[in-house]
Design goal:
SpoIID/LytB; 379 residues; six-stranded antiparallel beta sheet; SpoIID/LytB_N; alpha+beta; single chain; Sporulation stage II protein D amidase enhancer LytB N-terminal domain-containing protein; 23 strands; Bact_Sporulation_Assoc
Length: 379
Protein backbone atom coordinates (compact mmCIF):
# COMPACT_ATOMS: atom_id res chain seq x y z
CA UNK A 1 0.00 0.00 0.00
CA UNK A 2 1.36 3.44 -0.89
CA UNK A 3 1.64 6.45 1.44
CA UNK A 4 -1.22 8.14 -0.44
CA UNK A 5 -3.59 5.18 -0.01
CA UNK A 6 -2.69 4.73 3.64
CA UNK A 7 -3.16 8.43 4.42
CA UNK A 8 -6.61 8.40 2.80
CA UNK A 9 -7.77 5.36 4.79
CA UNK A 10 -6.30 6.68 8.04
CA UNK A 11 -7.93 10.09 7.60
CA UNK A 12 -11.34 8.53 7.00
CA UNK A 13 -11.01 6.35 10.08
CA UNK A 14 -9.81 9.18 12.36
CA UNK A 15 -12.93 11.21 11.62
CA UNK A 16 -15.02 8.52 13.33
CA UNK A 17 -12.86 8.27 16.48
CA UNK A 18 -13.21 10.10 19.81
CA UNK A 19 -10.81 13.03 20.13
CA UNK A 20 -8.58 11.26 22.71
CA UNK A 21 -7.98 8.21 20.47
CA UNK A 22 -6.43 9.62 17.32
CA UNK A 23 -2.96 10.31 18.77
CA UNK A 24 -2.48 6.62 19.55
CA UNK A 25 -3.48 5.61 16.04
CA UNK A 26 -1.19 8.16 14.40
CA UNK A 27 1.72 6.94 16.53
CA UNK A 28 0.97 3.34 15.50
CA UNK A 29 0.70 4.21 11.80
CA UNK A 30 3.88 6.28 11.63
CA UNK A 31 6.17 4.52 14.12
CA UNK A 32 5.08 0.95 14.77
CA UNK A 33 3.86 0.14 11.24
CA UNK A 34 5.70 2.38 8.74
CA UNK A 35 4.22 2.44 5.24
CA UNK A 36 6.05 1.71 2.02
CA UNK A 37 8.25 4.62 1.00
CA UNK A 38 7.47 6.17 -2.36
CA UNK A 39 9.87 5.35 -5.19
CA UNK A 40 10.61 7.98 -7.83
CA UNK A 41 11.77 6.77 -11.23
CA UNK A 42 13.77 8.70 -13.83
CA UNK A 43 12.28 8.04 -17.26
CA UNK A 44 14.14 9.31 -20.33
CA UNK A 45 11.53 10.82 -22.65
CA UNK A 46 13.91 12.52 -25.12
CA UNK A 47 17.66 11.87 -25.20
CA UNK A 48 20.34 14.19 -26.57
CA UNK A 49 18.00 16.26 -28.74
CA UNK A 50 18.54 19.80 -30.01
CA UNK A 51 15.25 21.03 -28.58
CA UNK A 52 12.45 19.72 -26.38
CA UNK A 53 9.03 21.25 -25.76
CA UNK A 54 8.01 21.40 -22.08
CA UNK A 55 5.09 22.79 -20.14
CA UNK A 56 2.58 22.19 -17.35
CA UNK A 57 -1.20 21.91 -17.02
CA UNK A 58 -1.04 24.19 -13.98
CA UNK A 59 1.35 26.94 -12.95
CA UNK A 60 4.71 25.32 -12.22
CA UNK A 61 7.82 26.26 -10.28
CA UNK A 62 11.11 26.19 -12.21
CA UNK A 63 14.20 25.24 -10.18
CA UNK A 64 17.86 24.58 -10.88
CA UNK A 65 19.66 21.36 -9.95
CA UNK A 66 20.38 22.63 -6.44
CA UNK A 67 16.68 23.24 -5.80
CA UNK A 68 16.85 27.05 -6.03
CA UNK A 69 13.68 28.61 -7.42
CA UNK A 70 14.34 30.43 -10.67
CA UNK A 71 10.81 31.44 -11.56
CA UNK A 72 7.37 30.23 -12.53
CA UNK A 73 6.04 28.63 -15.69
CA UNK A 74 2.51 29.73 -16.64
CA UNK A 75 -0.10 27.00 -17.04
CA UNK A 76 -0.69 25.63 -20.56
CA UNK A 77 2.25 27.55 -21.99
CA UNK A 78 4.75 25.30 -23.79
CA UNK A 79 8.35 26.48 -24.15
CA UNK A 80 11.37 25.02 -25.90
CA UNK A 81 14.41 23.98 -23.89
CA UNK A 82 17.70 24.10 -25.81
CA UNK A 83 21.44 23.78 -25.25
CA UNK A 84 22.88 27.12 -24.18
CA UNK A 85 26.65 27.05 -23.89
CA UNK A 86 27.35 24.21 -21.46
CA UNK A 87 23.95 24.66 -19.82
CA UNK A 88 20.25 24.24 -20.54
CA UNK A 89 18.25 27.28 -21.52
CA UNK A 90 14.50 27.77 -21.10
CA UNK A 91 13.07 31.26 -21.70
CA UNK A 92 15.20 33.57 -19.50
CA UNK A 93 16.44 30.74 -17.28
CA UNK A 94 19.73 28.94 -17.64
CA UNK A 95 21.36 26.22 -15.53
CA UNK A 96 23.20 22.90 -15.81
CA UNK A 97 19.78 21.32 -15.26
CA UNK A 98 16.25 22.64 -14.89
CA UNK A 99 13.37 21.08 -12.97
CA UNK A 100 9.71 21.87 -13.60
CA UNK A 101 7.37 21.12 -10.68
CA UNK A 102 3.61 21.57 -11.33
CA UNK A 103 1.44 23.02 -8.59
CA UNK A 104 -1.94 21.66 -7.46
CA UNK A 105 -1.43 18.10 -8.80
CA UNK A 106 -0.80 19.31 -12.33
CA UNK A 107 0.73 17.32 -15.18
CA UNK A 108 3.86 18.02 -17.19
CA UNK A 109 4.06 18.28 -20.96
CA UNK A 110 7.13 16.82 -22.71
CA UNK A 111 7.27 17.01 -26.51
CA UNK A 112 3.85 15.63 -27.46
CA UNK A 113 2.42 13.93 -24.35
CA UNK A 114 1.22 14.64 -20.82
CA UNK A 115 2.88 12.90 -17.89
CA UNK A 116 2.46 12.72 -14.14
CA UNK A 117 5.23 13.90 -11.82
CA UNK A 118 7.97 16.41 -12.66
CA UNK A 119 10.29 17.23 -15.54
CA UNK A 120 14.08 17.39 -15.36
CA UNK A 121 16.04 18.78 -18.31
CA UNK A 122 19.80 18.20 -18.40
CA UNK A 123 22.61 18.89 -20.81
CA UNK A 124 23.85 15.69 -22.47
CA UNK A 125 26.44 15.65 -25.24
CA UNK A 126 25.67 18.39 -27.72
CA UNK A 127 21.96 18.35 -26.89
CA UNK A 128 19.51 18.15 -24.01
CA UNK A 129 17.76 15.20 -22.38
CA UNK A 130 14.30 15.46 -20.84
CA UNK A 131 13.41 13.14 -17.97
CA UNK A 132 10.07 12.49 -16.35
CA UNK A 133 10.50 12.08 -12.59
CA UNK A 134 7.48 10.02 -11.61
CA UNK A 135 6.24 7.87 -8.73
CA UNK A 136 6.61 4.17 -9.49
CA UNK A 137 2.93 3.33 -8.92
CA UNK A 138 1.72 6.21 -11.08
CA UNK A 139 4.23 5.24 -13.77
CA UNK A 140 2.64 1.78 -13.88
CA UNK A 141 -0.81 3.20 -14.63
CA UNK A 142 0.57 4.07 -18.07
CA UNK A 143 2.94 1.13 -18.61
CA UNK A 144 0.28 -1.52 -18.01
CA UNK A 145 -2.01 0.21 -20.53
CA UNK A 146 0.80 0.48 -23.09
CA UNK A 147 2.22 -3.03 -22.67
CA UNK A 148 -1.02 -4.99 -22.22
CA UNK A 149 -4.56 -4.59 -23.57
CA UNK A 150 -6.68 -2.56 -21.09
CA UNK A 151 -9.81 -4.64 -21.76
CA UNK A 152 -8.12 -7.85 -20.63
CA UNK A 153 -9.26 -9.62 -17.43
CA UNK A 154 -8.07 -7.99 -14.22
CA UNK A 155 -5.98 -11.02 -13.23
CA UNK A 156 -3.93 -10.67 -16.43
CA UNK A 157 -3.52 -6.93 -15.84
CA UNK A 158 -2.52 -7.56 -12.23
CA UNK A 159 0.13 -10.02 -13.41
CA UNK A 160 1.40 -7.39 -15.86
CA UNK A 161 1.42 -4.77 -13.07
CA UNK A 162 3.60 -6.92 -10.81
CA UNK A 163 5.93 -7.87 -13.66
CA UNK A 164 6.33 -4.24 -14.78
CA UNK A 165 6.87 -3.01 -11.20
CA UNK A 166 9.48 -5.69 -10.61
CA UNK A 167 11.25 -4.97 -13.88
CA UNK A 168 11.38 -1.23 -13.14
CA UNK A 169 12.89 -1.82 -9.70
CA UNK A 170 15.41 -4.28 -11.12
CA UNK A 171 16.50 -1.73 -13.73
CA UNK A 172 16.65 1.03 -11.14
CA UNK A 173 18.94 -1.08 -8.94
CA UNK A 174 21.18 -2.62 -11.59
CA UNK A 175 21.31 -0.50 -14.76
CA UNK A 176 24.21 1.64 -13.58
CA UNK A 177 22.96 4.57 -15.66
CA UNK A 178 23.64 7.80 -13.79
CA UNK A 179 21.11 9.79 -15.82
CA UNK A 180 17.97 7.66 -16.09
CA UNK A 181 16.47 4.32 -14.98
CA UNK A 182 14.32 3.44 -18.03
CA UNK A 183 13.27 4.92 -21.34
CA UNK A 184 9.87 4.76 -23.06
CA UNK A 185 10.50 2.02 -25.64
CA UNK A 186 10.43 -1.77 -25.83
CA UNK A 187 14.14 -1.71 -24.93
CA UNK A 188 12.88 -1.25 -21.36
CA UNK A 189 9.10 -0.74 -21.01
CA UNK A 190 6.66 1.15 -23.20
CA UNK A 191 5.48 4.31 -21.43
CA UNK A 192 3.11 6.88 -22.96
CA UNK A 193 2.06 8.98 -19.98
CA UNK A 194 -1.61 9.81 -19.49
CA UNK A 195 -2.41 8.63 -23.02
CA UNK A 196 -2.22 4.94 -22.04
CA UNK A 197 -3.90 5.17 -18.62
CA UNK A 198 -7.30 3.51 -18.19
CA UNK A 199 -9.64 2.76 -15.30
CA UNK A 200 -8.73 -0.92 -15.62
CA UNK A 201 -4.99 -0.24 -15.38
CA UNK A 202 -5.49 1.97 -12.31
CA UNK A 203 -7.48 -0.85 -10.69
CA UNK A 204 -4.85 -3.49 -11.47
CA UNK A 205 -1.95 -1.38 -10.23
CA UNK A 206 -3.77 -0.31 -7.06
CA UNK A 207 -4.84 -3.88 -6.31
CA UNK A 208 -1.21 -5.05 -6.40
CA UNK A 209 0.41 -1.90 -4.95
CA UNK A 210 3.95 -2.59 -3.74
CA UNK A 211 3.99 -6.24 -4.85
CA UNK A 212 6.97 -7.65 -6.74
CA UNK A 213 8.46 -11.00 -7.73
CA UNK A 214 11.64 -11.67 -5.80
CA UNK A 215 14.41 -14.26 -5.55
CA UNK A 216 16.69 -14.32 -2.51
CA UNK A 217 15.02 -11.16 -1.28
CA UNK A 218 15.73 -9.10 -4.41
CA UNK A 219 13.58 -8.06 -7.40
CA UNK A 220 14.00 -10.45 -10.30
CA UNK A 221 14.69 -9.60 -13.92
CA UNK A 222 10.96 -9.83 -14.71
CA UNK A 223 11.12 -9.75 -18.49
CA UNK A 224 7.99 -10.40 -20.52
CA UNK A 225 6.92 -10.74 -24.13
CA UNK A 226 3.73 -10.91 -26.18
CA UNK A 227 3.57 -14.59 -27.16
CA UNK A 228 6.12 -17.42 -27.01
CA UNK A 229 4.56 -19.64 -29.67
CA UNK A 230 3.72 -22.48 -27.31
CA UNK A 231 6.69 -22.71 -24.92
CA UNK A 232 8.89 -20.12 -23.22
CA UNK A 233 12.67 -20.43 -23.18
CA UNK A 234 15.37 -21.01 -20.58
CA UNK A 235 17.08 -17.64 -20.46
CA UNK A 236 20.59 -19.06 -21.01
CA UNK A 237 19.52 -20.63 -24.30
CA UNK A 238 18.80 -17.16 -25.68
CA UNK A 239 20.85 -14.67 -23.60
CA UNK A 240 23.64 -16.98 -22.32
CA UNK A 241 23.46 -16.25 -18.55
CA UNK A 242 21.29 -18.71 -16.52
CA UNK A 243 18.79 -17.47 -13.94
CA UNK A 244 16.82 -19.86 -11.71
CA UNK A 245 13.51 -18.04 -12.20
CA UNK A 246 13.59 -17.68 -16.00
CA UNK A 247 12.97 -21.28 -17.00
CA UNK A 248 11.16 -22.53 -20.06
CA UNK A 249 7.55 -23.55 -19.37
CA UNK A 250 4.52 -24.57 -21.38
CA UNK A 251 2.70 -21.49 -22.65
CA UNK A 252 -1.05 -21.03 -23.12
CA UNK A 253 -0.89 -18.43 -25.88
CA UNK A 254 -2.62 -20.33 -28.68
CA UNK A 255 -5.36 -17.65 -28.76
CA UNK A 256 -2.82 -14.95 -29.60
CA UNK A 257 -3.30 -13.29 -32.99
CA UNK A 258 0.49 -13.56 -33.38
CA UNK A 259 0.67 -17.24 -32.43
CA UNK A 260 1.34 -18.12 -36.08
CA UNK A 261 2.62 -15.85 -38.83
CA UNK A 262 4.52 -15.97 -42.11
CA UNK A 263 6.63 -13.74 -44.36
CA UNK A 264 7.93 -14.30 -47.89
CA UNK A 265 11.10 -12.87 -49.41
CA UNK A 266 12.62 -13.17 -52.86
CA UNK A 267 16.30 -14.08 -53.12
CA UNK A 268 17.09 -10.62 -54.45
CA UNK A 269 15.08 -8.89 -51.72
CA UNK A 270 16.89 -10.84 -49.00
CA UNK A 271 20.21 -9.96 -50.59
CA UNK A 272 19.38 -6.24 -50.49
CA UNK A 273 18.24 -6.43 -46.86
CA UNK A 274 21.28 -8.39 -45.66
CA UNK A 275 23.76 -6.50 -47.81
CA UNK A 276 27.16 -7.49 -49.13
CA UNK A 277 26.35 -11.08 -50.15
CA UNK A 278 24.49 -10.63 -53.43
CA UNK A 279 21.48 -12.76 -54.35
CA UNK A 280 20.67 -15.14 -51.47
CA UNK A 281 21.04 -18.84 -52.12
CA UNK A 282 20.39 -20.37 -48.70
CA UNK A 283 19.57 -19.68 -45.05
CA UNK A 284 20.89 -22.24 -42.57
CA UNK A 285 20.43 -22.02 -38.78
CA UNK A 286 23.78 -22.59 -37.04
CA UNK A 287 22.43 -22.45 -33.51
CA UNK A 288 18.88 -22.99 -32.28
CA UNK A 289 17.33 -23.39 -28.83
CA UNK A 290 15.79 -26.70 -27.70
CA UNK A 291 12.39 -25.26 -28.69
CA UNK A 292 13.50 -24.19 -32.17
CA UNK A 293 14.31 -20.51 -31.75
CA UNK A 294 17.08 -19.38 -34.13
CA UNK A 295 20.05 -17.80 -32.32
CA UNK A 296 22.50 -17.65 -35.25
CA UNK A 297 21.79 -17.91 -38.96
CA UNK A 298 24.24 -18.47 -41.83
CA UNK A 299 23.05 -16.65 -44.95
CA UNK A 300 24.84 -17.55 -48.18
CA UNK A 301 24.65 -15.49 -51.36
CA UNK A 302 26.26 -15.65 -54.76
CA UNK A 303 28.80 -13.01 -53.66
CA UNK A 304 29.56 -14.14 -50.12
CA UNK A 305 28.02 -15.15 -46.80
CA UNK A 306 27.25 -13.70 -43.38
CA UNK A 307 26.59 -15.06 -39.90
CA UNK A 308 23.64 -13.12 -38.44
CA UNK A 309 22.58 -13.02 -34.76
CA UNK A 310 18.98 -13.38 -33.64
CA UNK A 311 18.60 -9.70 -32.79
CA UNK A 312 20.06 -8.65 -36.15
CA UNK A 313 17.81 -11.11 -37.96
CA UNK A 314 14.65 -9.78 -36.33
CA UNK A 315 15.63 -6.18 -37.00
CA UNK A 316 16.74 -6.61 -40.62
CA UNK A 317 13.83 -8.83 -41.71
CA UNK A 318 11.27 -7.27 -39.30
CA UNK A 319 10.31 -10.65 -37.86
CA UNK A 320 7.96 -11.02 -34.92
CA UNK A 321 10.22 -13.65 -33.35
CA UNK A 322 13.05 -16.01 -34.27
CA UNK A 323 10.92 -19.11 -33.71
CA UNK A 324 10.46 -20.13 -37.34
CA UNK A 325 11.21 -22.58 -40.13
CA UNK A 326 12.32 -21.77 -43.67
CA UNK A 327 11.31 -23.27 -46.99
CA UNK A 328 12.66 -22.29 -50.43
CA UNK A 329 10.85 -22.60 -53.75
CA UNK A 330 11.93 -21.11 -57.09
CA UNK A 331 13.90 -18.24 -55.61
CA UNK A 332 11.35 -17.43 -52.90
CA UNK A 333 12.00 -18.03 -49.21
CA UNK A 334 8.97 -18.59 -46.95
CA UNK A 335 9.47 -17.95 -43.23
CA UNK A 336 6.75 -19.57 -41.10
CA UNK A 337 6.95 -18.50 -37.49
CA UNK A 338 5.21 -18.50 -34.13
CA UNK A 339 4.94 -15.98 -31.34
CA UNK A 340 6.03 -12.39 -30.85
CA UNK A 341 9.08 -11.38 -28.81
CA UNK A 342 12.08 -13.06 -27.19
CA UNK A 343 10.07 -15.85 -25.54
CA UNK A 344 11.53 -15.41 -22.04
CA UNK A 345 9.57 -14.88 -18.81
CA UNK A 346 5.91 -13.84 -18.72
CA UNK A 347 3.89 -14.46 -21.86
CA UNK A 348 1.25 -11.73 -22.02
CA UNK A 349 -1.15 -13.70 -24.22
CA UNK A 350 -0.54 -16.73 -22.04
CA UNK A 351 -1.47 -14.64 -19.00
CA UNK A 352 -4.62 -13.49 -20.80
CA UNK A 353 -5.64 -17.07 -21.61
CA UNK A 354 -5.03 -18.28 -18.05
CA UNK A 355 -6.95 -15.33 -16.59
CA UNK A 356 -9.86 -16.12 -18.93
CA UNK A 357 -9.88 -19.61 -17.39
CA UNK A 358 -10.09 -18.20 -13.85
CA UNK A 359 -6.42 -18.52 -12.86
CA UNK A 360 -5.38 -15.81 -10.38
CA UNK A 361 -2.53 -13.39 -11.01
CA UNK A 362 -0.25 -14.87 -8.33
CA UNK A 363 -0.55 -18.32 -9.93
CA UNK A 364 0.08 -16.83 -13.38
CA UNK A 365 3.24 -15.15 -12.11
CA UNK A 366 4.37 -18.32 -10.33
CA UNK A 367 4.02 -20.28 -13.56
CA UNK A 368 6.09 -17.97 -15.75
CA UNK A 369 8.65 -16.98 -13.08
CA UNK A 370 9.64 -20.33 -11.64
CA UNK A 371 11.23 -20.35 -8.14
CA UNK A 372 10.41 -16.65 -7.56
CA UNK A 373 8.11 -15.42 -4.77
CA UNK A 374 5.39 -12.78 -4.72
CA UNK A 375 6.50 -10.37 -1.98
CA UNK A 376 6.22 -6.76 -0.86
CA UNK A 377 8.77 -4.20 -2.03
CA UNK A 378 11.64 -3.74 0.45
CA UNK A 379 11.55 -0.53 2.49
Amino acid sequence: MTNKHTARLLGSYLQRLPAHSWLVLVFWALIIAPVQAAVELRIAISKGVSSVSVGSSTDAVVKDGAGRVLGELTAMNALNANPRGKAVGLADWQASQLIIEPENDGYVWINDRWYRGRTRIIRQGSGVTALNLVDLEEYLYSVVGAEAIPSWPQEALKAQSVAARTYALYQMNTSGNRIYDLDTTTRTQVYKGLESEFTSTHEAVNATAGQIMSFNGKPILAVFHSSSGGHTENVEDVWNSPLPYLRGVVDYDQVAPVFQWSKNFSANELGRLIGGIGRVRSLSPERITPHGRVIRMRIVGDQGSKLISDTQLRRILELRSTLFTISANNGTFAINGRGFGHGIGLSQWGAFSLAEQGVTYDSILGHYYQNARLTEMPN
